């Protein structure tokens, strides 16, 4: 997690070394204890700085969390969240729909696994705060929907995917399956283990492409 944030997040922000340490420790503590359970003293100790140093950069504990979420969602959505999806669609001309969907599933699973502590924070805060939901909507959902819409139009013209269903409806169905699969793996893997992910993905994609009606 720390390696991921160092390479893909902090490098974009031009932060001082101390500020990088504070944000990295904040992510760690927030993900372990939640926002309400974390304290600035714990964050300071983990970062190896005095607690007063934190307040040189941020007025409140909430300010640290806001800083993390705003930068992560607004600055990194294109490069980190959407970049690989765009590449999959751009390279899809010689692949069938099943192959493309499988690539997307694997890409999103691997991505969320790499940032799961941060993803938990974003999800919790999105449930509580309009500004976080708005940032996610504008920078991720809308942009991802546009990328998928272009893919849908092309495949619709080729006759390899339904063009009588709105693009966003199909996009939502795919996204929901990805989200539930990730939720199962991260939260209930001990009770609902996925023994063979590749076979599981084949089943899910088959349902997406053909529905649940018996042939």
Summarize the helices and strands and which ones pair or pack.
Layout: H1 2-8, H2 17-37, H3 40-47, H4 51-57, H5 61-90, H6 97-114, H7 116-128, H8 130-158, H9 167-187, H10 197-210
Helix pairs in contact: 2-3, 2-5, 2-7, 3-4, 5-6, 5-8, 6-9, 6-10, 7-8
Task: Describe this entry's structure for a reader.
This protein is mainly α and 215 residues long. The chain has one domain: Tetracycline Repressor, domain 2, CATH 1.10.357. It is built from ten helices and no strands. Helix 2 runs antiparallel to helix 3, helix 2 packs across helix 7 and helix 7 packs across helix 8. The longest helix has 30 residues. The radius of gyration is 20 Å and the shape is elongated.
Observed structural traits:
10 helices, elongated, disordered N terminus, 78% helix, Tetracycline Repressor, domain 2, mainly alpha, 215 residues
Short summary:
With 215 residues, the protein is an all-alpha fold. Helices cover 78% and strands 0% of the residues.
